[in-house]
Each structure stands twice: as C-alpha cells, then as structure tokens.
C-alpha cells in the first residue's frame, strides 16, 4: 500500500526546505502542509508536538533530526547518507544548519515579513525576532554589514563545489543541509551572486529536482 505522506512546513525554515528537497531527491510525493509561523495548532493536534518540519508517514510522525535516516530506511535508494561518507556528510550538513544559516538569517531577517501570509503572522515574527535579536531598526541598519559578512560564506560554498557537481561528488545530506541553510536568502527574493558560478549552478540543480 502506498504511504500517505505529509510534510508540515514553513518556507522560511531552512530545516523545512532541506526536508522538502530530500523528499524530491527520493522521488517521494508529499502533501506540503503550510504551518504558520505563529500557529502550530494543527500540527500539535496531529502529532502532539510543535516542531517543524514534521513528516507524517501514514500516521507515523518523524521530526527533523530523524528525517534523513528515516527516509533512507523506507526508501534505500538513492541514499542521503551513503556508506563511507556518513561522518563527513552529517558534519557538513550540521555546519550548514548551525553556522552558515545564522549568517544568512542575520542578512535577511528584516526582509522576511513581506513573505508571510497575513498581518498577524508578520506581527508575531517581528516581535519574536526583536526579543531575540534586538531592535528592528538596528537590525535593518546593520543589514549591509551582515550581507558583506555573508558574501564570504557564499565564497566558501562556491569553493567546495569547484570541479564537482555536488559537495561530496554525489548528492548527500550535506547538499540538502547547506542548500536549506542558504534558502532564506532566496525566499526573501534575493539572488545568489553570479560571481559564485559553482554555487549558482549547484543551487539550480537542487531546485530542479
């Protein structure tokens, strides 16, 4: 019997974008359930918790950290974590989510509200980000500084991809972790800089999955 697959998702979440691209890589069709930034009630009712992304696999709920291994179990090919590359792939994936994403987020945070669906979601987003990061006006004023810092990280990823199509020569969780971590930049309407051609072509390959 074919599994019914749903992904509870928000497009500004780097983890969500990573999970959605992993499903595409696996060729798994999933219903994407928009989960508002400020309202996870539907997810809580369904799964008993509020973290996104959450994968609903015919009633079995799988949260973010378990998704890559779960997908490799239920559909072994193509593999997200291939033997012999597991440690490096997971390390690079973590670098994307824990280091790179923060540089991206600082550069885009004040650009996010127009991408949200309604005024309530926008208000909650700005309020929570202000509490976590300081005055909104200061964040907006420092945006040029944050973008300049981010440019160096674009260069790091571009250098990883020089002479190869994928970070580890074949698609792995490293690619999806790094791609997801960069995704808030494009979600707010920015383009990856053309001076990093390896990065630009790699991102397009992932978008085309």
Q: Class of the largest domain, according to the CATH hierarchy?
A: Mainly Alpha
How much β-strand is present in the residues?
5-15%
Alpha carbon gyration radius: 17 Å
Total domains: 2
User: Gap between N and C termini, in Å?
Assistant: 25 Å
Strand order of the largest sheet: 2-1-3-4
Number of strands: 4
SSE run:
EHEHEEHHHHHHH
Helix content: 55-70%
Question: In one word, what is the shape?
Answer: flat
Q: Within the CATH hierarchy, at the fold level, what is the topology of the largest domain?
A: Glutathione S-transferase Yfyf (Class Pi), Chain A, domain 2
Number of helices: 9
* Structural class determined from secondary elements: alpha+beta
Parts with pLDDT < 50 across at least 5 consecutive residues? none
Mean pLDDT equals 97
Reported CATH architecture of the largest domain: Up-down Bundle
Biggest β-sheet strands, sense, barrel = 4 strands, mixed
């Amino acid at each position: 019997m074919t599994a019914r697959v749903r992904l509870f998702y928000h497009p500004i979440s780097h983890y969500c974008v990573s999970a959605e691209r992993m499903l595409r890589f696996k060729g798994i069709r999933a219903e994407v359930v928009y989960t508002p930034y400020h309202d996870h009630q539907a997810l809580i009712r369904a799964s008993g918790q509020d973290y996104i992304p959450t994968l609903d696999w015919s009633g079995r709920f799988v949260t973010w950290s378990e998704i890559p291994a779960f997908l490799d179990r239920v559909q072994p090919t193509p593999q997200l974590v291939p033997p012999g590359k597991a440690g490096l792939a997971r390390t690079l994936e973590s670098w994307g989510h824990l280091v790179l994403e923060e540089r991206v987020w600082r550069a885009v945070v004040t650009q996010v509200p127009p991408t949200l669906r309604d005024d309530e979601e926008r208000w909650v987003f700005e309020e929570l980000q202000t509490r976590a990061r300081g005055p909104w006006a200061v964040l907006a004023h420092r945006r040029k500084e944050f973008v300049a810092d981010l440019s160096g990280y674009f260069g790091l990823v571009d250098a990883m991809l020089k002479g190869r199509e994928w970070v580890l020569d074949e698609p792995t969780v490293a690619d999806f972790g790094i791609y997801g971590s960069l995704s808030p930049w494009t979600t707010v309407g920015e383009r990856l800089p053309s001076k990093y051609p390896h990065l630009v072509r790699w991102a397009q390959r992932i978008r085309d999955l």
